[in-house]
Design goal:
globular, 34% strand, 2,3-Dihydroxybiphenyl 1,2-Dioxygenase, domain 1, 317 residues, oxidoreductase, alpha+beta, eight-stranded mixed beta sheet, single chain
Length: 317
């Protein structure tokens, strides 16, 4: 039993409409689910992913209209990376970002890969990562109806970067409890991997004693989720985490997957999530994300929920 890799990353936006425009029309990702935060149904929860919404490709956003600015610091998921096919693709994106005035840095070598750091309009810290030399977890398949050519599309989530005030306890949780392995250090960041390893299965941790704690807002990340096979494995992980002394949520049914949440010692929220059943559970694969999806336990509240949301047109037909 092992963690298979990154499952999804969930972040915060203050404007669902502008967020949808950027991630679909600029980055060319597919909106595979338009739903609500099950813990606060007054806010959208948008899922962007690959062609089929495969686990390991989901970048999700909670809409919090009154979210203020993010003040970066420790206790944070400080960069989310997105995978692309090869080094040449990074040059395609560099030119596209230049044409569309997307805030970006130069292409650089990091952790033996070519990368392109950039920010979305709300300052979300992002990085494109080349899979040219990847030998680990397989990538997803870019959306065939994207505005981006198929061979240049985003294929999933890459390494997740954490910034902490004290490296040791976070490393201990990831290695001794969750089973990650140390790969090396690059630019003063510890690199850990799990499962088959590679781009889709890494966590990079930077220790910063010179920073204060991050004040999250729009453009910040709420949590990272790691992949487990199924509900039976998730229950075993619950017992392991409980035995280690970490308070946790217990198993939570998110309908599209089942989850367990806990905070590691630097207060970063970790989620373990099952690979299935997936986003086609309640929608046809050809029309994912085109209408508001609600899990069965919220369906009776649909009228009330829809009235609380600002309309968001995602119908592509």
């Amino acid at each position: 039993m092992h963690i298979k890799g990154i499952h999804h990353v969930s972040a915060i936006t203050a404007n669902a409409k502008k967020n949808y425009d950027f991630y679909t029309n600029v980055l060319g990702m597919r909106l595979v689910k338009k739903t609500v935060n099950q813990d606060d149904t007054s806010m959208y929860h948008l899922f962007y992913a690959d062609e089929k919404g495969n686990p390991g490709t989901d970048f999700t956003f909670f809409e919090i209209p009154r979210a203020g600015n993010t003040y970066p610091g420790t206790h944070s998921i400080s960069t989310t990376s997105l995978r692309v096919k090869n080094d040449e693709t990074l040059r395609f994106w560099q030119e596209r970002f230049k044409q569309l005035n997307v805030d970006q840095d130069p292409i650089k070598e990091y952790a033996n890969r070519k990368t392109l750091p950039f920010r979305d309009p709300e300052g979300q810290r992002l990085m494109l990562v080349s899979d040219e030399n990847n030998k680990g977890v397989a990538s997803g398949q870019p959306w065939g109806k994207s505005v981006i050519p198929l061979n240049r599309g985003i294929t999933g989530l890459g390494p997740v970067h954490l910034t902490v005030a004290n490296l040791a306890p976070t490393k201990q949780v990831l290695t001794e409890i969750l089973g990650f392995r140390e790969v090396g250090r690059f630019d003063n960041k510890l690199v850990l991997e799990t499962g088959e390893g590679g781009t889709g299965a890494e966590v990079h941790i930077e220790e910063r004693t010179d920073l204060s704690r991050e004040r999250p807002g729009r453009g910040s990340v709420h949590h990272v989720a790691f992949r487990v096979e199924d509900e039976q494995e998730l229950e075993q992980w619950r017992l392991i985490i409980q035995k280690a002394g970490f308070p946790n949520s217990g198993l939570v049914d998110r309908f599209y997957f089942k989850s367990l949440y806990f905070r590691e010692p630097n207060h970063i929220l970790f989620e373990l999530a099952t690979d299935g059943p997936g986003f086609a559970t309640d929608e046809d694969m050809d029309h994912l994300g085109e209408s508001l999806s609600l899990p069965p336990f919220l369906e009776a509240q649909r009228e009330e929920i829809e009235q609380s949301l600002t309309p968001l047109d995602t119908n592509r037909s």
